[in-house]
Amino acid sequence: MTSEESTETVTTSNSQENQEAQDSSTELEARMRGYIDVAIRASTESIMHNMQLYMDQQARTQQEWNRQLMETVNQKLAQFEQVNLNNNNQTISQHPCNSSQDSQQRTIAVETNEETTQAQKTIAE
Question: Which stretches does UniProt call biased (Polar residues) (predicted)?
Answer without folding.
Answer: 18-27, 88-107, 115-125
